[in-house]
Amino acid sequence: MIAVFLVGGFMYISNLKLIKGMLYMTKFYTNFNLFNGVEAEIVSDSWMEVDEESGKVTRIGHGTKKVSGENIDLKGKYVMPGLINVHTHIMMNPLTNKLEYLSETEVAYQALKNLKELLKSGVTYIRDCGCAFDVDIKLAKLQNEGVFDGTEIMPSGRPMSMTGGHGDFVEGWDGETTWGYLTDSPDDMRKAVRQAFKIGAKNIKLMATGGVMSATDQIDDIELSLEELKIAVEEAHSKHMTVSAHAEGEKGIHNAVLAGVDSIEHGSYVSDEDIELMLAQGTFLTPTLIAAYTIPKYGKGKLPQYMLDKASAFMDKYFERIGAAIKAGVKISFGTDAGTPFNGFKDTTFELELLTSVGASNEQALFAATKNAAELLHIDKEYGSLEVGKYADFIVLDADPLENIKAVQQEDKSVYKKGIKKF
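Structure for Amidohydrolase, as requested:
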């Protein structure tokens, strides 16, 4: 039973929610142009009804419809699903670029700040791809308990790395731990994946190759064996977790694809052979082009020379290979590697423009950030598009994103999470 009482001309209900004038059970959004994340079209004069309790769409359509709830006129603007960023590092500060000797408190504080920036930019759901102290798992649990809301987190916890590899960063004020699990055998890998599962990881992040930000390796280094990768996939998939692989060098990409990972992250030197294999298997590719773009553009004199040298040496080839994969029809998922140097969480939408610069159409870029991302994360029954039965996560833009991909970069866009306006 809901207790209702009046105080000072306002109506209150038992959950302390204040509603001026009268009690509404639904919100009715009207007068907008809709890109629903499913079809590559804009539907004018659209409307959408949202259940306040569940935050889900109950009816959607266009043309005249009787309003049954609080009416919110969106004044002819453009509505699209909230963005899903499948590759973030909410623990990182992209300006200080401090990677080592972070305390858990620093990581949690930075993560909360970054989540707010993500939401303001229009990102309503993320997969975090590696977080010290498993802070992303802990924050996701607090979200599920209703302690705080906002951009939702699919956590990976600590990534899987070899000793000395991309992920072997020292953490804690006293250096008492490392960023990733150090897995140097199939048995190490099996135990680490099971430990991550035990504490609540929903994705397993594998460091299959070297990377730009690690001083001890090169991009084309193979850092986890094929057997270790296969064990990770076997264990994770048996427990309904997804698997993403940081993979930049050609041989490491090949091993990760053979192992059956759900997504290749970066894919800098993806070969034609692996493009065909990814197409056959349905493997996703998350390009994270912005992560390579920002280092040579903003890092001179601010970053270690090894980072600048690595990024500058491979960026042209990287962009060319991603373009080849897009042209071939590989399923593209949207991720930015946010948190890496000068790769701000507020800059998420620039990745859409970069995707179009290497050959993606506007609709391909938008689908990567909506329905494709949701499919990769296995959340497409409730997220990724604006349809009946799915959460009302959406952004409101002044211009048509199908016509101009830069429309999504609008800084003062309105952002709604489960039907509630957040910005």
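Residues 83-376 form a domain with the TIM Barrel fold (CATH 3.20.20.140).
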